[in-house]
Protein: D-alanine--D-alanine ligase
Amino acid sequence: MKRTVILACDVYDPKTPELCQEWESDETIQNMEKTIQDLGYDVAVLSNPSEIASVLSGIPVTERTHWMVWNLVEGYHSQSREAYIPALCEYLAVPHTGSSAAVQTLTLDKYKTKVFLKSFGIPTADFWLVEDPKEKLIANFPLFVKPNGEGSSLGIGEKNLIKTSADWEEVVPALVEKYNTVLVESYLSGRELTIGVLGNKGNYEATIPAFVDYPGPVYSDLVKSKESFVESLDFKVPEGLANSLQTYAIQIANLLGSSGYLRIDFKLEKNLPYLLEVNATPGFSSIYSTLPLLWEKMGKTYSELLNHCLDLGFSEYQHHYRYQYAKDRNL
Structure:
């Protein structure tokens, strides 16, 4: 029986960038659809939540092992938004790409991710969470503030680099009012780096890392906009630093128990790397998303990347205990 891949997705709308900056573009989804079809799969693109739920629940139980849901749903506002598809698939015993709902929910919360990983020795800048717009400053300048549960640099601009009490009063209360929780960190002055991890629990492979260069002092929402793409990757990372990042990346994947793929961002201070954040639902544009670009720099094709991610999803479904309840009840 021929296998079918459902691209469960939100489609980027340039009219509402603040809500959907993290969503994949129509061009990326079409490219993924064609690439996966060329791999020999049937492909269905679904973007309506009710339709996705209806189609998944309507798959005959004897055929569910022949289906794969590629999780591209990012949603907005909810702290559980990147976990919608993994939770639904796990409950219905349908394979999906990427990490479990538990990992997706944790990594979307930057503060809790840092608390967890710091407890195992992963280096991070000093940080705390602000939930009250009236909260007063409790650390030394400079600081960097950002929404705790957003990606794609949403809510980030040059004003997020806090150098004075006046900066704090101008920026932080407004961010809390808009995004509810704000992560505050001691500012790291060095270059930013990114690295990918592919694999399932106990068998991970880190990509090569790269510096992320961008104009100005801040990787802002304007820099990361789908309309601009002004950031660039510099693959000339010193060997010792690259080895450290790969070690940290695989350690982080093991600690989280991630599946399929991760993108992990670091920043330097005095030439030492500190964790910025973990993204369990990275972008898959072959043009500008960092995970595919890191993969291709290693001499592998975009098609091979998508095929590998699908293989990892099927392997996870066969071997991971988190599907067992649904298999027992549904199959």
Remarks:
- The mean pLDDT is 92.
- Residues 239-256 form the longest helix (18 residues).
- The chain is about 35% helix and 20% strand.
- Residues 106-122+189-316 form a domain with the D-amino Acid Aminotransferase; Chain A, domain 1 fold (CATH 3.30.470.20).
